[in-house]
Amino acid sequence: MSKKVQAIYLWWHKPVIDQELLQSLPNLKVIANSGVGMDHLDLKLVASFGVKMANAPNAVSSSTADTGMGLLLASARRLVEGYHIAISAGMEYCEADFLGVEVTGATLGIIGMGNIGYKIALGAKAFEMNILYHNRTRRKEQEEQAVGATYCEKMDSLLQRADFVMVVVSLTPQTHKLIGKREMELMKPTATLINISRGAVIDQEALVTALQTGVIRAAALDVTYPGPLPRDHTLLKLKNVIITPHLGIKTDKATYMITEEAVENILAALNGLPIPSEVLPS
Amino acid sequence: MWYHKPVINEELLQSLPNLKIVASSGVGIDHLDPNLLSRYGVKLSNTPFVVSTDTADLGMALMLASSRRLVEGYQMAVSPDTEYFPADWLGAELSGATLGIVGMGTIGYKVAERAKAFEMKILYHNRNQRNKEEESAVGAIYCKKIEDLLHQSDFVLLSVNLTAQTHKLIGKRELELMKPTATLINISRGLVVDQDALVEALHNKVIKAAALDVTYPEPLPRDHPLLKLKNVIITPHIGSATKKTRRLMMENMTESIQAGLTGLPIPNEVL
User: Fold this and answer.
1) pTM
2) How many CB atoms lie within 10 A of CB B227?
3) pLDDT value at B260 more than 70
4) Inter-residue contact A125 to A133 (CB < 8 Å)
5) In this structure, how many other beta carbons lie within 10 angstroms of the beta carbon of residue B36?
6) In the annotation, is B189 catalytic?
């Protein structure tokens, strides 16, 4: 059986691609990933077996960007807390005290302005948000103007000015714990941190402290490390945190498109053609 | 007046002979009787425009939260029983979906502006059609008959004011005209929807889900079926609940009161 396997479609990081598996599949030609992130793969190891790799960068953009905006809005307006108040038995609350923060006209700082980050900017523009962004490279002027985004060469400048900080980077050795104690302390105490990248991009312990001591107002995380978190983790208990179960691409449409992209990549690899979204070890 | 308190009735008005003005917070005045106030020579004001963007923002928040099952997702993420996140757990995309806005006033229009950026197709039903420029700016198509909007929409958002004409505007019949995959979002007033019909429709999968910032009454009795349905998100009437907007509302109300007391023209007077 193992000699017949030529392609693997990796769905949610399973199966685990390690030395043992690669050795047992001598005819494996390609691994196609369901999604854009490749941080769970040892690219060099896979390449050393002569196996090609591909991700699905295009299919994920809309649904992930929508998740980012959905979390931003839910956190700003305290939607989850509000829901619990609305349905809970016999809980007295003072309506006049229950306030959120404005989204329209607020400043959004996007860290990582790739496909997903740019789509978020398009959405945020419709909410008349003031958009700042930090990226490895600056985008073209036209692209900036189309969304009214201002480039912040230094991430610190973005952190100091933003009411909402949206993290949309891929996980690499450079972005590991990109947002730590120092970065959170640069943020406004009224600011909200939203993470739709990977849990490891944020220093989670520093985040717990920052949220508990009012260094930042709130956080909304579609990703954590690990995901799911241990059931006794403090983040699960904080009122000013919304956590969602990595639902960034979990829509009918996105999963369908991701599978289409993966199949295209697999067929190309098996036919010796250029692979549309090939990922090379850097 | 905040949150409909105190109740303005004959008894109260008779006991306050020097009352000159009632300044009501928010834009809705369905809880007041303008004719009654007029008989007592008492002026009335509201705060119409300051609430618009926050309410539109909340409408979008509810639409995103409902379509992506955010509240259910949160519960899964924090539940003590969760060991892993299931792979077959899915929500619905906004891009390419059709949003039907019932009531295209200031708030409805702002919702359209926001929804356009999410690549939604926008239909609207209104007492009057908006002009061509306004329509094309948000790509909105007018549905003279509400039935046409209900048939085609994946999301139906209610942003009308509550009047005798809009009372129970969405009832059993309207819900049955909606797609079984559709979601109802209400940011108007609870009474615009026939709540009992809504419960039944959700129960029998006549529509997929609902997201309500408003109910009747507020809050609902603690044993009400709407509070228990998995496919319902309810928020405690927080459409205008941000620090900035509440401050602006208060400023507006103060201005109206000061004008009312000094006999000057009243900003935001309701006639």
Assistant:
1) 0.95
2) 17
3) yes
4) no
5) 13
6) yes
Residue A90: the pLDDT is 60
In chain B, residues 81-110 whose CB comes closer than 8 Å to chain A: 82-85, 87, 89-96
d(CA B173, CA B111): 25
Contacting B residues, span 212-231, partner chain A, CB-CB under 8 Å:
219-220, 222, 227-228
Torsion-angle region of B244 (φ positive above 0: left; ψ -120 to 50: alpha; else: beta): alpha
Active site residue B237: yes
Domain with residue A16: its CATH number is 3.40.50.720
Residues of B in contact with A60 (CB under 8 A): none
Pick the CATH number of B52-81+89-234 from 3.40.50.720, 3.40.50.300, 3.90.76.10, 3.90.1520.10: 3.40.50.720
pLDDT for the residue A8: 95
Q: Do A36 and A140 sit in the same domain of this protein?
A: no
Q: Which domain holds residue A98?
A: 61-243
pLDDT at A15: 86
How large is the average pLDDT for residues A225-232? 94
Domain total of chain A: 2
Please list every residue in chain B whose beta carbon sits closer than 8 Å to the beta carbon of residue A93: 236
| Minimal Cβ distance to B87: which of A11, A128, A252 | A11
- Is B58 at the interface with chain A, CB within 8 A? yes
B180 touches chain A (CB under 8 A): no
Average pLDDT over residues A82-92: 81
Any idea which fold B10-49+242-262 has?
Answer: Rossmann fold (3.40.50)
DSSP category for residue A139: P
Q: In B104-175, where do the E strands start and end?
A: 121-125, 140-142, 155-158
Contacts of B243 in chain A (CB under 8 A): 99, 101-102
* Closest residue of chain B to A83, computed from CA coordinates: B235
CA B182 – CA B202 distance, rounded (Å): 11
Domain extent listing, chain B: 10-49+242-262, 52-81+89-234
Both tokens assigned to A279: 């990922």
pLDDT of residue A11: 87
pLDDT (tens digit per residue) in B36-50? 999 999 999 999 999
Whether residue B246 lies within 8 A of chain A, CB to CB, comes out as yes
Q: Which of B65, B114, B242 sits opposite A126 (nearest CB)?
A: B114
Average pLDDT over residues A127-132: 98
Q: What pLDDT sits at residue B210?
A: 98
pLDDT of residue A88 exceeding 90 = no
CB contact under 8 A, A79 and B235: yes
Q: Which residue has the tokens 């690219």?
A: A43
Please check the confidence at residue A92 and state whether its pLDDT lies above 70: no
Are A91 and A192 found together in one domain? yes
Three-state SS for B233?
strand
Catalytic annotation, pick one of B113, B218, B255, B269: B218
